[in-house]
């Protein structure tokens, strides 16, 4: 019985150490990106402005029509295509990381088990 408990404690400690390590790595990476990109949280004035504009858009049909007209007249450029491609790659990466976390392994599920 004590060997089972020892085994469980050892495995749990190993998982906890791994989780702490990767949390620290993620925090440091996030901090580096935060500094390099010059990111900062929005000020209260910026938040208030965005909130007011969103409410104005929801409440005013003419604003909605103006938006639809702009969407109809949109002419994509090469720069837009590059941005869409980059955002698509980022979304795929986030999705893939989520899949790996969900499966708890890098390789796909074994078909015979599912």
Automatic annotation (TrEMBL):
It holds the Pfam family ATP-synt_G. Its EC number is 3.6.3.14. InterPro entries: ATP_synth_F0_gsu_mt (IPR006808). One of its GO terms (biological process) is proton motive force-driven ATP synthesis. GO terms for molecular function: hydrolase activity; proton transmembrane transporter activity. Keywords: ATP synthesis, CF(0), Hydrogen ion transport, Hydrolase, Ion transport, Membrane, Mitochondrion, Transport. The keyword Secreted does not apply. It is found in: Mitochondrion membrane. The keyword rRNA-binding does not apply. One of its GO terms (cellular component) is mitochondrial membrane. It is an enzyme of class 3 (hydrolase). Belongs to the ATPase g subunit family. This is ATP synthase G chain, mitochondrial, putative. It comes from Candida dubliniensis (strain CD36 / ATCC MYA-646 / CBS 7987 / NCPF 3949 / NRRL Y-17841) (Yeast).
């Amino acid at each position: 019985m004590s060997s089972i408990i020892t085994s469980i404690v050892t495995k749990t400690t190993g998982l906890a150490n791994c989780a702490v390590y990767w949390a620290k790595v993620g925090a440091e990476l996030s901090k580096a990106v935060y500094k390099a990109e010059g990111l900062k949280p929005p000020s209260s004035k910026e938040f208030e402005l965005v909130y007011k504009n969103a409410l104005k858009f929801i409440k005013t049909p003419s604003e909605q029509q103006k938006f639809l007209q702009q969407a109809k007249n949109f002419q994509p450029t090469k720069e837009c295509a590059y941005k869409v491609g980059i955002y698509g790659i980022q979304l795929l990466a986030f999705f893939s990381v989520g899949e790996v976390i969900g499966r708890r392994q890098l390789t796909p599920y074994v078909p015979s088990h599912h």
